[in-house]
């Protein structure tokens, strides 16, 4: 069975009352179409990744763009043989992407965006003219990034601004920033401009949009981490065959073993592989039992 997956966002001012009404409306629409996924709502807009059977997802998207606030939505589409989510969750938050910069968001859909082919052409100018900066977290950049990109050692997006303050970017080069689907860069570019950077551009639609244009991977090395059960996708937008989610911390896992408690197959991340009990436990429950057994010795 094939499932369709759509990622999308839109920055648009919404009243608190409208946010509540949208939550109820989208929950009703989602349940009617069997939608699974995560939808974030705030007074600054919407951010979501959802999945369903293709016809059901198409019907949901049609209903969504019929709403006046989301008439010009664009979707980053992909497919999977298994669901990317187990249920539909709709949350109301202060921001639709956690930057700890409430109130700072774009007022138009185009602000120094580069289409994938334009981005690729600039990359080919080389490090003498451009500096490429990844705005994602360390566990994301570890499994894939653009060749030569600066990968800040951050665990959450809200740390990005502090990294730039402590590691200023060259003012004499074109700064290119990117993320998974584009939403983090929408805030990051405004924050960089507030810090005095003028020659900054963002990859329109992020890595996912770049993969759609360059299915051979282009200048991207590795896979793109996702916040769903696919863990990551390759350059052809197919679910990762290399990574699973570490059961102990949620980072991408590649270290395989036979569980020391239940003897089943397990996989953890490199960091957890070096931790007592976690490194040989396929679940948190098995790690608990291994600790209990060790205490009896």
Task: Give an account of the 3D structure.
It is an enzyme of class 1 (oxidoreductase). Belongs to the TrhO family. One of its GO terms (biological process) is tRNA modification. One of its GO terms (molecular function) is oxidoreductase activity, acting on paired donors, with incorporation or reduction of molecular oxygen. Keywords: Oxidoreductase, tRNA processing. With 297 residues, the chain is an alpha/beta fold. The chain has 3 domains: 90 residues, Alpha-Beta Plaits (2-Layer Sandwich), CATH 3.30.70; 115 residues, Oxidized Rhodanese, domain 1, CATH 3.40.250; 52 residues, no CATH class. 29% of the residues lie in helices and 24% in strands. It is built from 9 helices and 17 strands. The strands form 6 sheets. A 5-stranded mixed beta sheet has the order 4-1-3-2-5. Strands 6-10-9-7 form a 4-stranded parallel beta sheet. Helix 1 runs antiparallel to helix 2. The longest helix has 18 residues. It is globular, with a radius of gyration of 20 Å. The model has no long low-confidence stretch (mean pLDDT 95).
- Order of strands side by side in the largest beta sheet? 4-1-3-2-5
Derived from helix and strand composition plus strand pairing, the structural class reads: alpha/beta
- DSSP helix count? 9
Alpha-carbon distance between the termini? 48 Å
Q: What name is given to the CATH topology of the largest domain?
A: Oxidized Rhodanese, domain 1
Name of the CATH architecture of the largest domain: 3-Layer(aba) Sandwich
The coarse silhouette is globular
Q: What is the number of independent domains?
A: 3
């Amino acid at each position: 069975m094939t499932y369709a997956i759509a990622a999308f966002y839109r920055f648009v001012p919404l009243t608190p009352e409208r946010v509540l009404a949208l939550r109820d409306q989208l929950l009703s629409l989602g349940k009617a179409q069997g939608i699974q996924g995560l939808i974030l709502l705030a007074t600054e807009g919407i951010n979501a990744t959802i999945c369903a059977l293709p016809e059901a997802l198409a019907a949901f998207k049609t209903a969504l763009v019929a709403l006046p606030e989301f008439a010009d939505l664009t979707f980053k589409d992909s497919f999977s043989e298994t669901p990317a989510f187990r249920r539909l969750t709709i949350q109301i938050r202060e921001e639709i992407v956690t930057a700890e910069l409430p109130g700072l968001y774009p007022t138009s859909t185009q602000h120094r965006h580069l289409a994938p082919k334009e981005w690729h052409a600039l990359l080919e100018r080389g490090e003498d003219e451009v500096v490429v900066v990844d705005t994602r977290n360390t566990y994301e950049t570890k499994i894939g990034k653009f060749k030569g990109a600066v990968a800040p050692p951050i665990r959450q997006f809200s740390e990005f601004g502090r990294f730039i303050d402590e590691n200023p970017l060259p003012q004499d080069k074109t700064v290119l920033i990117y993320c998974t689907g584009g939403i983090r860069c929408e805030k990051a570019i405004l924050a960089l401009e507030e810090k005095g950077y003028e020659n900054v551009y963002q990859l329109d639609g992020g890595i996912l949009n770049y993969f759609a244009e360059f299915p051979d991977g282009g200048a991207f090395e590795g896979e793109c981490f996702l916040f769903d059960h696919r863990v990551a996708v390759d350059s052809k937008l197919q679910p990762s065959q290399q990574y699973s989610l570490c059961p102990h911390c949620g980072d991408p896992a590649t270290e395989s073993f036979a569980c020391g408690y239940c003897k089943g197959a397990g996989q953890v991340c490199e960091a957890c592989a070096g931790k007592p009990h976690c490194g040989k436990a396929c679940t948190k429950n098995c790690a608990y039992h291994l600790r209990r057994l060790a205490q009896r010795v």
